[in-house]
Amino acid sequence: MPTLVRDAMSTVVLTIGPAHTLRQAARLMSARRVGAAVVLDPDAGGIGILTERDILNSVGAGQDPDREPAHLHTTTDVVFAAPDWTLDDAARAMTRGGFRHLIVLDGHEPVGVVSVRDIVRCWASAPGHGPMAAADAVPV
User: Fold this and answer.
1) Furthest-apart CA pair in the chain: how many Å?
2) What CA–CA distance (Å, rounded) separates 35 from 111?
3) Long-range pairs of 51-57 with CB within 8 A, sequence gap ≥ 24
4) Which of 19, 71, 11 is nearest to 47 (CA)?
5) What is the pLDDT of residue 129?
6) pLDDT-based confidence at 1, cuts 50/70/90?
7) Residues 35-69: pLDDT tens digits?
8) Is the pLDDT of residue 6 over 50?
9) H-run or E-run covering 16
10) Do residues 18 and 41 make contact, with C-beta atoms less than 8 angstroms apart?
């Protein structure tokens, strides 16, 4: 039976508002040990995501993280996952979209975030996966 997103996702969902600064977001992400924050912006129509890469790109461009609001760096064209997606479904969506995090929605509510790290962790611990799986399949 395939592993589902609900079994791999982090249920620690950090939510921030659009006016949080990038530094505030980075501090919260660091404290919670997560690589993304869900940005709830009712005025802009809903749910977005701010990732560690978004913050890195801003700082690398010389922008001041104490002055830059999250909403200017938030991805609002988000691909969402459902809890009953397989990890293969999630990995394909990430590969197609070129991103590393999916917000998991149950109905219209964010219930988790699944990352590439979560998927790799599950696949690496599954029987028949991992670095030895290929070697085990080849007769010596």
Assistant:
1) 63
2) 16
3) 51/75, 51/99, 51/100, 51/101, 52/26, 53/100, 54/22, 55/22, 55/25, 55/26, 55/29
4) 71
5) 59
6) confident
7) 999 999 887 778 999 999 999 999 999 999 999 99
8) yes
9) strand 15-16
10) yes
